[in-house]
Amino acid sequence: MNILITGAKGFLGKNLVENLKNIRDGKNCTRPNIHIEKIYEYDIDSIPEQLDDYCREADFVFNLAGINRPKDPEEFKKGNFSFANRLLDTLRKYNNTCPVMLSSSVQAALEGRFGTSEYGLSKKAAEDLFFEYAKKNWYKSFGVSFPKPGW
């Protein structure tokens, strides 16, 4: 199995990458039925052409990429929605219907104090995009919402 992790240098991404490497290298034997061949790490400083290569070869995608502390609120949309759109377009370009796990946030519910949150709005837009794409293209999409620590 070839696995693509976007946001590979973030907190979740780097820990996931290390765990997957341990599984691949036989150091973690808790998942004996998972056979990992390649782990593709993609992050904000990666070369754009790498996304093409990785999307062509991926059997599973963990989309952990996102922006949560920008200088300008417009960066929320660029980092959370626009990248998600680019990722899905690239998978579609190669007719790759592999499962995609989207990391999101409880703020995407847009409830309570998060009702008008730019971050929440961008995460909600990305969720909607993924689930609509999944319906149209008959592939599996998983959304996982993460609360902030201490919530």
Structure description:
- This protein has 151 residues and is an alpha/beta fold.
- The chain has a single domain, classed as 3-Layer(aba) Sandwich (Rossmann fold).
- 42% of the residues lie in helices and 17% in strands.
- The protein is built from 4 helices and 5 strands, in the order βαβαβαβαβ.
- The chain has helices spanning 11-24, 48-57, 74-93, 118-137, and strands spanning 2-6, 38-42, 60-63, 100-105, 141-146.
- A 5-stranded parallel sheet has the order 2-1-3-4-5, with helices on both faces.
- Helix 2 (48-57) packs across helix 3 (74-93) and helix 3 (74-93) runs parallel beside helix 4.
- The chain starts with a strand and ends in a 5-residue tail after the last strand.
- The model has no long low-confidence stretch (mean pLDDT 80).
